Task: inverse folding
């Protein structure tokens, strides 16, 4: 059998994965949800036809969106994750015993249900007692919180579809308000490579720069995302992303990871020149 | 005439039939189904250009409808409960003007609130009628003008028994209704017509939680912006008439100014929208009401902002309130409505309908999605957090009672002189000055310019309202009547 999943990375570029078998298909109020098995990448979650994660490379994304800010913040106890219904971000967070609570705000309950059933690799820690799951619009949830979280992780889909509102100035402003005085916000920041993604990336950066005193961008390699070159936003009220970070303290935690390490931490903020220029254009 | 049901859409069906025939067009429009203008076709789409056609036998003719347009108009009349409906392709402006030109000739009087849309006063310039203005009461704290109180209209009717008609906004831009039923009775008792500007009231006819549509409570004519809450294309509107108005005469009036090349895109959009409203109107406005009620509650929970609703109703000058209108009082945040309007657009990529000096109006329709409502609420809450100001020094809007020195037509055509705006106090204005939107004149031709009015114009300009009307587009100069004032 020759069954292929194809995602259009641009109008002129396609990315295909050979499918072994389809495990789940559902149409929720918000989007179409597909989970399938593949030889190369293991299980794959796609929303509206866009790859959200694969078992093979999700560690790259989830480690980078979580451990960078967790290493910077000296005492992160109360965490908010917006999006991230697959559970991968939560899985990384609950590795820290210092974390007292994680609020997971996912708009689409069916994503969580499907992931719990078919993607235990990421969803396995959603039942941790410190985790509270809320099925609600992130923009709505955040509006009602003030001076409450040490860290907010915006683990969103793309800036079209259900994740649209999570790339707006009003959302970032509300995150600022919901953070404590030394809080950090990290977000999925799209890619600098293809024109449409780069445009979304610039817009997001512009809005974050307008909302936070410290706004930097760092990168990772994620093979199944368009161009494989992906960015994260690091926005902070007080802490610089790599100067004055107590890396030794973090190392003593002894976490066993596959992508993130403290050398990579600072290096990931060193960006290619064309990316720096894209960012400067909107600062 | 065929027996038609609301499920049919005669103009749409005729256009589809016409497409199947693959006629060879040796008639206008010259783009010939778009082939002659590839750039336009690329931009608008082939489907759109292929029905941008001229009237022909199978498509009827808007200037003299006898087949499919007439059928579509009859279905519309039935859907709205009117004796007849006219499809209008010159906007609600053309419908309002037709109402007034039908009711009034040169020298006739017409009773209307001063907060009418410019199109109504423009009609007076065209026909030479004289307005008898009713002072719409003002809500001092919100800074908005209201509906007409029954008592005030009654007095005007007694003082001007020879007036030909009463014009009423149903509702105002902000959603406020007068007692149309009582006013219609009053008009009829005195041999006058009741005309309703329902530019913002199309949806009233399709939901029982909304104020009464004017035609259902005795109005003689109503102008409806189908392109606002009805969902049709911009510039398409509807004029409804009751049994006491001559259809043929109204037709003649319409044809005085209407194009002889009516757009089938606009007409088809009216036909399709009428069908949609007739079949699904209740459902559609259920959804809109739910979204607006939710937004109102959330906005009022932010603090300082006041998204008002039915609680304003006072049985007279606010006889009813259109709950689909999301009008928000912003002055309590220390910001003029126009400032919030600008911030929403420039900083948050949110375009609202308009901002005046104390309010904004967010237009909510069936096209909105809950997540967009969340963005609006979140942005308003952010604007309050980041931009809130001290409220002192903010101008309170007041109703400025116009002093009409001569009828609009006479003033407009009188010999005039252009003066720097600061030097015009005491003169009689011969042109309009207004903020657009909402397009309600601050000054109309024939009205006395007072220091208070000049102060209001200066303030509105400073806050960033977009001002229109005068011949001098920058509004540095105003035309005044030669020899008027000191
Ligand atoms: C009360 C009122 N009447 C009439 C009109 C004219 O409508 P149109 O722009 O369709 O000509 C408007 C438009 O904004 C209006 O607000």
Result:
């Amino acid at each position: 059998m020759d069954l292929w999943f194809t995602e259009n990375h641009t109008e002129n570029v396609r990315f295909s994965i050979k499918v072994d078998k389809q495990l789940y298909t559902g149409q929720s109020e918000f989007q179409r949800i597909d989970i399938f098995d593949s030889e190369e990448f293991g299980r794959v979650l796609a929303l509206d036809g866009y790859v959200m994660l694969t078992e093979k490379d999700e560690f790259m994304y989830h480690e980078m969106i979580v451990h960078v800010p967790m290493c910077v913040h000296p005492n992160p106890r109360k965490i908010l994750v917006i999006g991230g219904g697959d559970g991968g971000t939560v899985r990384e967070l609950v590795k820290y015993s210092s974390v007292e609570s994680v609020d997971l705000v996912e708009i689409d309950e069916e994503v969580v249900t499907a992931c719990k059933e078919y993607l235990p690799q990421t969803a396995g820690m959603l039942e941790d007692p410190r985790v509270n799951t809320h099925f609600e619009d992130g923009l709505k949830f955040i509006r009602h919180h003030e001076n409450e979280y040490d860290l907010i992780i915006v683990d969103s889909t793309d800036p079209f579809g259900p994740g649209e509102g999570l790339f707006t100035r009003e959302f970032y402003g509300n995150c600022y308000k919901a953070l404590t005085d030394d809080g950090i916000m990290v977000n999925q920041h799209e890619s600098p490579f293809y024109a449409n993604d780069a445009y979304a990336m610039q817009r997001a950066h512009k809005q974050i720069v307008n909302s936070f005193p410290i706004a930097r961008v760092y990168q990772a390699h994620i093979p199944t995302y368009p161009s494989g070159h992906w960015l994260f936003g690091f926005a902070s009220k007080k802490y610089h992303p790599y100067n004055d970070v107590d890396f030794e303290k973090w190392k003593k935690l002894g976490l066993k990871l596959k992508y993130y390490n403290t050398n990579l931490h600072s290096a990931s903020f060193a960006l290619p020149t064309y990316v720096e220029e894209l960012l400067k254009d909107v600062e | 005439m065929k027996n038609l049901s609301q499920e049919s859409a005669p103009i749409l069906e005729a256009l589809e039939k016409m497409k199947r025939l693959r006629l060879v067009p040796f008639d206008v429009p010259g783009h010939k189904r778009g082939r002659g203008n590839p750039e336009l076709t690329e931009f608008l789409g082939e489907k759109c250009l292929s029905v941008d056609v001229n009237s022909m036998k199978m498509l009827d003719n808007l200037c003299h409808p006898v087949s499919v347009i007439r059928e579509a108009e009859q279905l519309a009349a039935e859907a709205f409960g009117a004796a007849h409906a006219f499809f209008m392709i010159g906007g609600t402006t053309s419908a309002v003007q037709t109402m007034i030109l039908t009711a009034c000739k040169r020298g006739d009087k017409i009773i209307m609130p001063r907060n009418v849309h410019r199109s109504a006063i423009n009609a007076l310039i065209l026909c030479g009628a004289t307005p008898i203005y009713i002072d719409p009461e003002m809500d001092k704290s919100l800074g908005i003008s209201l509906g007409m109180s029954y008592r005030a209209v009654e007095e005007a009717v007694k003082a001007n028994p020879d007036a030909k008609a009463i014009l009423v906004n149903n509702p105002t831009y902000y959603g406020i209704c007068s007692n149309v039923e009582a006013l219609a009775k009053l008009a009829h008792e005195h041999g006058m017509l009741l005309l309703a500007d329902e530019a913002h009231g199309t949806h009233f006819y399709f939901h029982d939680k909304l104020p009464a549509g004017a035609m259902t409570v005795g109005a003689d004519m109503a102008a409806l912006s189908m392109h606002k809450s009805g969902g049709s294309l911009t510039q398409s509107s509807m004029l409804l008439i009751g049994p006491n108005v001559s259809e043929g005469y109204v037709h003649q009036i319409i044809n005085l100014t209407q194009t002889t090349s009516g757009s089938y895109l606009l007409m088809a959009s009216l036909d399709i929208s009428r069908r949609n409203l007739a079949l699904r109107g209740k459902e559609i406005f259920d959804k809109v009401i739910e979204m607006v009620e939710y937004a109102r509650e959330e906005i009022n929970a932010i603090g300082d902002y006041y998204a008002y609703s039915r609680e304003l109703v006072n049985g007279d000058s606010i006889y009813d309130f259109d709950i689909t209108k999301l009008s928000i009082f912003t002055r309590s945040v220390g910001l003029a409505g126009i400032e919030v309007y600008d911030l929403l657009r420039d900083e948050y990529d949110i375009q609202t309908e308009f901002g005046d000096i104390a309010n904004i109006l967010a237009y909510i329709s069936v096209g909105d999605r809950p997540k967009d409502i969340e963005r609006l609420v979140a942005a308003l809450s952010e604007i309050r957090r980041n931009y809130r100001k001290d409220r002192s020094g903010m101008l309170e809007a007041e109703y400025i009672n116009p002093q009409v020195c001569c009828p609009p037509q006479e003033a407009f055509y009188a010999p005039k002189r252009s003066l720097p705006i600061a030097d015009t106090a005491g003169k009689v204005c011969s042109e309009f000055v207004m903020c657009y939107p909402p397009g309600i004149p601050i000054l109309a031709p024939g009205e006395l310019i007072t220091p208070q009015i000049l102060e209001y114009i200066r303030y509105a300009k400073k806050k960033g309202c977009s001002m229109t009307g005068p011949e001098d587009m920058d509004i540095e100069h105003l035309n005044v009547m030669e020899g008027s004032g000191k």
Q: What stands out?
A: Chain B is about 35% helix and 15% strand. The CA atoms of residues 206 and 281 of chain B lie 5 Å apart.
